[in-house]
Each structure stands twice: as structure tokens, then as C-alpha cells.
Amino acid sequence: MMYILMSFIMIMMICILLMLLSYIISNKKIMSREKMSPFECGFNPFNYSRMPFSLHFFMISILFLIFDIEIIIIIPLIITINQMNMFIWLISIFMIISILMIGLIHEWINGILEWSL
């Protein structure tokens, strides 16, 4: 019991020491209007609120969501590699990756990935 208590006290001391060290080392600056204002997706909160939104931001976010869902689909397949037939596993991985690659090539051809202002 004493060993656990001493370990807990040591961990707490290390945590407090690290927090104090980071507070001392951190580069504190005087807060300006820009730092104190909220930041929403590149918009200035003090401008007109009905500014047109660039569809390019929307398309990039959809692209991110698609590849994020791809990770959710592929990770369980990697975990089940030993439990499935290898041929069926390879076909399913190939189908998922080929669908994603076809979508990526389609977006590339349509110029969604080109960032021009």
C-alpha cells in the first residue's frame, strides 16, 4: 500500500513539474484583438455574415470524409486477415481500393484537387 501511495505522489510531482515547466517556457504574448476574436473556417467574424462560401472548401471536406470512412472500412479487414479466406479477403480489399481510386481519379479529372484562388 505504501508503494502505491509513493508512486502516486511521484507521478503527481512529475505532472506538476512538467506543467510548471511548460508554463515558464511557453511564449506568452500580449493578447491582441485578432487573438481574442473567434475563428470560424477562415471567415472574419466581423464581416458580412452572408458572404458566399467557396464550394472548393466543401468538396475538400467531402473528400476528407470519404477517405476517413475508407479507414473505418479497411481497419476491420486488416484485423480479420487470419480469419477469412485469403482469396476473398484480397478481392474485397481490391474492390474497396479500386472504388476509392476511381473516385479520386474522377475528382482529379474534374479539377477538384487543384487549389487556385
From TrEMBL:
Family: Belongs to the complex I subunit 3 family.
Main location: membrane
Job description of the protein: Core subunit of the mitochondrial membrane respiratory chain NADH dehydrogenase (Complex I) which catalyzes electron transfer from NADH through the respiratory chain, using ubiquinone as an electron acceptor. Essential for the catalytic activity of complex I.
Keywords: Electron transport, Membrane, Mitochondrion, NAD, Respiratory chain, Translocase, Transmembrane, Transmembrane helix, Transport, Ubiquinone
One GO molecular-function entry: NADH dehydrogenase (ubiquinone) activity
Pfam families: Oxidored_q4
Enzyme Commission number(s) from the entry: 7.1.1.2
Stretches that traverse the bilayer: 6-26, 57-81, 87-109
Catalytic activity annotation: a ubiquinone + NADH + 5 H(+)(in) = a ubiquinol + NAD(+) + 4 H(+)(out)
Full protein name: NADH-ubiquinone oxidoreductase chain 3
Region forming the signal peptide: none
Gene3D superfamilies xrefs: NADH:ubiquinone/plastoquinone oxidoreductase, chain 3
One Gene Ontology cellular component annotation held by this UniProt entry: NADH dehydrogenase complex
Subcellular localization(s) per the UniProt record: Membrane; Mitochondrion membrane
Originating species: Stenopirates sp. HL-2011
Membrane topology: Multi-pass membrane protein
Top-level taxon of origin: Eukaryota
